[in-house]
Amino acid sequence: MHTKRPLILLAALAAVLALAPTRAPAADDFPLKDGDTWVMVGDSITAQHLHSNYIEAFCYARYPKLTFRFRNSGVGGDTIPKALARYDWDVAAWKPTVVSVELGMNDQGGSSVPQFMENMAKLTERIRKIDARPVYLSASPINNGQLLAQVSGKNSDNQGGNARLHRYAEALKEYAAKEKAPYADQFHALVDVWGKNKPNEILLNDYATIKSIAGRKDLEGVEHLQAFLALNEKKEASLVSMKGDPVHPGEPGQLTMAAALLKGLGARGFVSSATLDADGKVGETKGCEITDVKADGGKLSFDRLDDSLPFPLADAARPVLPLDPTILELSRCGLKVTGLSADAYELRVNGVTVATVSNKELDKGINLTAYAKGPIAGQGKEVLAAVAAKEGLVGQWRNLSRLVASAEVPKGTVEKLADLTKEVEAADGKIREAARPRKLRFELVAMK
Fold it and tell me: In the β-sheet with 69-74, what is the strand arrangement from edge to edge?
């Protein structure tokens, strides 16, 4: 059964979505304020829920004292005109205070730089019309092995692909400055990083092919391939792939995207730091509290409660950490212990062995974000899982919102949307709970 859409339904929807007023800003230049609803407009790369989820999880981890919410509004194949066409029901319907725009990958095939910027101005007008703050994000590069020097020449004006994305990024930077709006340029931050790494990705594919052949027992001479793989095991382990395809990177590539965007927007990199000595004396601490310290022979233990969390990272993305130092720079969660006598120590957190570290490393200071094992990394994955669960509900919400905005609204749709809105908001609360700092018990045990 259908009924025509009356204005009162939209008014009711607006009432359901009314949010708390914006309050105090965050303590740095990052464009996130207390009370914000941030809608992330993008194409299929945003719709993958990878780098967008990393950005959201980072914000919950780093700014636990702020109350905010993120909504993914990515659609495969989107250009700015297509985003404008769905704007009312898929962006404005959330009553956002921040709208980030990450488009261009699909525009570059048919829009010149002036046309792209003309369309961006139209989208900006729509954003400002609802009293939201625009945030501009350049498109990511196409991971095809090209370097900036190859796509930024004099003849790049009439070229598509990375050449046009390069020109878009330059024009968008200038436009954002005129608009006095935040801008992050992931294209220029990543094009050479990805381009220089492309031969390693090809080599990894070669290794995968060799492995598949080496596993064949029906072929003569496979023992030579197996010997080759054993000889080059360390070489293979050092190679990094962005995964996915040239336009849609997988977990590692999208983590570099999130890091580039967060850094470009001025996100705070410092989490916390603590210094102790071998006798258990607590030195300087920032962003954390150290209590219940015990030094007993070759063992040092203490409780630590941080004010915020490190960057939440998925295991599948961690291989890219050595390639892109920006990621750990955005998550400086330090521990320094001086005067230790043993050469190496087992680092345990809540009884779980996290790593083996030398006294020299501890004397210099270690970054706890770097370790994939234990409750610190585990809590980060909890945050990512909570973000993903919420975004599943957001996807359902968007479908219902589209129906409410249609010429004929199926019976009961408005009520379903109101109920789902409450579910989405409850899911926001679960992310905040997952990102709440927890007191952890640290142990450093001398290795024999």
Answer: 69-74, 37-42, 98-102, 133-137, 183-184
